[in-house]
Amino acid sequence: MKEMISLEEARALVCGAVAPTEVETVPLLEAVGRPVAADLTSDIDVAPFAHSAMDGFALRAAEIAAAAEDAPATLRVVAEIGAGDVFDGVIGPGECVRIMTGACLPADADAVVKYEIVGVVEGDGKTGSLVSFTAPAKAGANVRPAGEEARAGEVIVRAGEVISAAGVGFLAGCGVLEVPVCRRPRVAIIATGSELVPASEVPGPGKIRNSNSYAMAACAREAGAEAHMLPIVEDTFEALRDAVAAAARDYDFVVTTGGAANGDYDFIKPVVAELGELMMTTVSMRPGKAQTFGIVNGTPVFGLPGNPAAAYVGFQMLIRPALRTMQGYTFMDHPVVRARLTADEKNRDPRRIFLRANLTRASDGTYEVTPAKNQSSGLFGPIQKTNCMAVMPDGTEPQPAGSVVDCILLDVPEEVCL
Q1: SS3 per residue for the chain
Q2: Residue 263's pLDDT is what?
Q3: Same domain for 299 and 210?
Q4: Domain limits at 166?
């Protein structure tokens, strides 16, 4: 095992160690935002019949082919069709039918002329009236054909495609009310540290609230997983060993925070090594060099640093892609835009650096990025108040103001292409 590996190597290692969860069938509404596990087909043509795209008059286009402003064509209205109604009669020569939006197109009609451009010569425009047309209409005008959106038996959503809110409506119209998806992974979140107290308590001398569990659980939920915050574990080898062993039996993925470095009270590495296979200990990134990963009882176990920002960046860069892999997602990278730094960044660390930053548009329409003043790895606040991570490339070269760098948009779904 290499002492320190690149971020790309680390992600390939973690994602390669997980497998999709078993497929389950869920009600349609529960599938929103999730990739489907199999192709889905429609049970009918959608729409099942040709219908009018607007309120107007259904007719044969040939009847008004010679219509003009100075020589209007006139037709007699022989019926009215509302949405949900069907006209079974015949539209004879010199006749038309008043039709509402969404109503089934009569078999004899091939076009609809919108109500607003039709003149009324006699009557009120309804059945029995005489109406006039001052321009021809093309066959198919203002008509939505049968099967415009889908055909019966046609694959309408392919395996791996993520269901959107609009997609839920599409599938409902196609008769798909249950969807096969990979089960959401159950993620155990374990915060370690004898200094921690539950967030519901006011900390006493030398103690701090356990905020990491909440943040990592939120990250897991954002990744589509089920998050389960387990009790705080004190800084002893035995306590952490027992907690990890139990979690590895009961959950699909285990995430710990704290104890990932090499201090006297850092135990996640020896715990994973004793219980299973230790596969990774450090990654060339900042914040968050200390990243532990291994397999215990067939379950992935990831030890994040205790510093909040380091834990957050590690989760986003390494754990989130693994959880998405387990759910069948095919896109793993958040969108990246290129932006000009507004201030000098000395960047004297050879590791890749992720700066909490704010992305804005300059007056010329290009992007600018301003790193937060406080880049402490011990703080969540700067992450809440920024909208991207500006990436300083590996190496010790400074990045002066005006340099163009990658900016990762963590709040934009991976499926979005910019």
Answers
A1: CCCCECHHHHHHHHHHCCCCCCEEEEEHHHHCCCEECCCEECCCCECCCCEECCCEEEECHHHHCCCECCECEEEEEEEEECCCCCCCCCCCCCEEEEECCCCECCCCCCEEEEHHHCEEEECCCCCCCEEEECCCCCCCCCEECCCCCECCCCEEECCCCECCHHHHHHHHHCCCCEEEEECCCEEEEEEECCCEECCCCCCCCCCEECCHHHHHHHHHHHCCCEEEECCCECCCHHHHHHHHHHHHHHCCEEEEECCCCCCCCCCHHHHHHHHCEEEEEEECEECCCEEEEEEECCEEEEEECCCHHHHHHHHHHHHHHHHHHHCCCCCCCCCEEEEEECCCECCCCCCEEEEEEEEEECCCCCEEEEECCCCCCCCCHHHHCCCEEEEECCCCCCECCCCEEEEECCCCCCCCCC
A2: 82
A3: yes
A4: 24-43+158-182
pLDDT band at 227 (very low <50, low <70, confident <90, very high): very high
Dump pLDDT digits (tens) for 282-339. 999 999 999 999 999 999 999 999 999 999 999 999 999 999 999 999 999 999 999 9
Across-strand partners of 283? 5
Position 418 scores a pLDDT of 78
Cα(157)–Cα(197) distance, rounded to whole angstroms? 47
Q: How many domains does the chain have?
A: 4
**Contact by Cβ (8 Å): 326, 184:** no
What does the pLDDT look like over 137-184, one tens digit per residue? Answer: 999 999 999 999 999 999 999 999 999 999 999 999 999 999 999 999
The answer to whether 213 and 306 have CB atoms below 8 angstroms apart is no
Whether residues 318 and 235 fall in one domain: yes
Task: Please report, as a single letter, which amino acid is at residue 226.
Answer: E
CB 343 within 8 A of CB 399: no
Q: Are residues 362 and 318 in the same domain?
A: no
